[in-house]
Amino acid sequence: MNLRNFICVLWLLALNALGAWAIEDERGDAFPFDRVGEELEYSMKWGIFKVGYGYLRVLPIVEVEGEPCYHVMLEVNTNSFADAFYKVRSKFQSYISVADLRPVLYRINQHEGSTDRDATVSFDWENLTATYQRDGEDPKEAVAIREETWDPLSVVYYFRRILSPGEGIVSLPATDGKKFLLIDVKHLGLTDLKSQMGVNPSMKVEPNTKEMKGVFKKSKDSNITMWYSHDADRYPLLIKSKVIVGSFNAEMKKVRKIGFNETEKVGPDGSVDD
Questions:
Q1: Helices 3-13 & 154-162, crossing angle to 10 degrees?
Q2: Of 19, 66, 95, 142, whose CB count within 10 A is highest?
Q3: Is the omega angle on the peptide bond into residue 32 within 30 degrees of 0, that is, cis?
């Protein structure tokens, strides 16, 4: 799966804008990476069928190779109905430096259908490279990146951090350790959204899918549309897609505050001990 496709799948299953979209308010520069204990729960539907659930979590600050990092995680699971034809039990974790808000490590635990993949992407900001390494294998050739580049999960949080009202198109630099891309996102304006979270003023955006492969490339009118709450939280409330295999929705249903009793420990390979 290519990077552009993969990032949009992340947005689809769970579920930042530069210059004119920048926000300056009381939230601080780290928002929302520093919201330890925040958990956003999503219900997922394929057409009329409920197929699973997803969680976006902000976990306690951890040290990765001696560097304090914000820790965010996406977890996606299908339900018993979807398990019968395509079982998903996946986690994606991103570790972002507290000091400069740049990703340090990205951890992939992807178990979907016949795919079983455990890997890391490490960032070298001195040399401006990112390196992908599957567990038990040699590292891939490093990919050149820019001064500001995000991994597929941290870019979702970054978008939430800096999104604000206004129209236009922005390009988000991102990498999965195999390829560097600029992902264009178009702001479509403000609207009132009715969802499981009630009726909320929302900001509507649309990532560009024109270069995607797989079902996105085959679908002539494929698109992905997202609604973020128009408030200080910038919650991703709803994600809708239309592709060759039908329609897919991920809708936020709950916001929780979860507690933690211990500081996590992160190994050099990105593994986490609680």
A1: 70
A2: 95
A3: yes
3-class secondary structure, 15: coil
Residues 68, 96: Cα–Cα separation, whole Å: 8
Task: Read off the pTM.
Answer: 0.82
| pLDDT tens string 156-208 | 888 887 776 666 787 889 999 999 988 888 888 888 988 888 888 888 988 87
Tokens of 49: 């069928």
Q: How many residues does the chain have?
A: 274
Report the distance separating Cα 8 and Cα 259, nearest Å.
30
Burial of residue 66 (CB within 10 Å: 0-12, 13-18, 19+) is: exposed
Q: Is 214 exposed, middle or buried (0-12, 13-18, 19+ CB in 10 A)?
A: middle
| Nearest-angstrom CA–CA distance, 178 and 119 | 12
CB neighbour list of residue 137: distance below 8 Å, 6 or more residues apart: none
Query: Which residue in the block uniquely carries the two structure tokens 């979807």?
Result: 82
Q: Give the integer Cα–Cα distance in Å for 120 and 133.
A: 5
Q: Determine the distance from the C-alpha atom of residue 83 to the mean position of all C-alpha atoms in its chain, rounded to a whole number.
A: 23
CB of 242 closer than 8 Å to CB of 40: no
Joined tokens for residue 237: 């409330």
CB 238 within 8 A of CB 200: no
